[in-house]
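Q: Got a minute? One more chain.
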Amino acid sequence: MLVPGAEDPIVLRDDWVNYVQPEDLHEGLAEVLDKFDSVFENKVGCVRGFVHAIRLKEGAMPFKHKVRTIPLSVRGELKAVLDRLKMEGVIEEAGASEWVSAIVVSKK
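A: Always. Here it is, folded:
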């Protein structure tokens, strides 16, 4: 990174913080937030026109993780969240697969 007034580039220097002032950071942050405001909206977005490919090591064998028990106290809330995510198009049912990973439930 080049900073006006600094003699050398400050990348990988221990004293880089002495060259960057908070007001500089706030100006830059405001610009980024304004330019890319849709990225920072408080809603889930979707990437369209992109196909994700998972590359496996040659000879990789399918594996199914053991099912984890979901506590009764959170099942209703979990179902509601999964239904909402499905309705919003964030997740979809995939059917049977040779590769299975168990869901881990944790509350924010």
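A: The helical segments are 22-35, 72-87.
Q: Perfect, thanks.
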